[in-house]
Amino acid sequence: MRDTRESRLLLVLLIAIAFALITVDIRAGEESPVDGARQAAAAVFGPVEEGVATAVDPVANAIGAVRDSGERHNRIATLERENAALKAKLGSEGQTRSRIHELDEMLKRAGAGQYGIKGAEVIAIGAAQGFSWTVTIDAGSKDGIERDMTVLNGDGLVGRVSTVGPDTATVVLANDPDFTVGTRLEKTGELGFATGQGDRALSVQMLNGKAKVSPGDRLVTFGSRGNKPFVPGVPIGEVVKVDPSRGDLTRTVWVRPFVGFSRLDIVGVVVMPPREDPRDAVLPPKPEAPKPTPTVTVTVTPSGSAGVPAKPADD
After folding, report:
1. I need a surface site. Which of 2, 183, 185, 198 has the fewest CB within 10 A?
2. CA torsion sign, 74 to 78 to 79 to 81?
């Protein structure tokens, strides 16, 4: 339509009529004269609006889904973090229980031998100090640790302190090839010297070549003069093999250490020796051998044959 004077007058007239109809419709309420026209328009344009809404709804749903997916992703990430935290807590609680058990066993050994100990944690392993089998503990001279002190844990002899710093110390383990400790055999008291063999059983030279030794016998430390580097009575290990005696002055036996050197964690350094030699008191009681199950032997006596009459009883 061209922009002329007549078109402008027509537009103004239509606007005026529209306002007039709106005013009449509002004032008339439910009895409005344009109500029929409104219903007719709804009947004509209603399906069109519904189709447009149907076409638009998937787009709106998709937008909502994208928005919700972000929220779900954040929720999943939160749940995953909470799950990881719970797993870490459970793992740390299990580790804590294990360490408490180790500490409890170590205190039992120290109490049985009347050793005054300083607890420490293994913080490093390796041959950095020039030894084959060593560990570093988080206790040093500030904690009263000195060179040539005995180190033990809940299982038995761990080693001896070799070097000391202000806050840390190096411990040579009992399975080191250069490690030697005096031993005493349980019950009989036979003496010997144990030498480390790395990841193999300790080699023990019994001073008495005719000493009676059997697999399962246990050994403890004999002790050193002045209780350095070894205090007496610390469990060492159990005999697993005895070399045959050939009439030599000494005899070799092989001993499995009580301590697992590859899984050390909590240890104790003996800073105060016992007043008396505990002998075998630090060794735990041996488990009782299972009692044999009694057997019952049933003997079946065959009855007389059918063709032979039974012997009559005496009158």
Report:
1. 2
2. positive
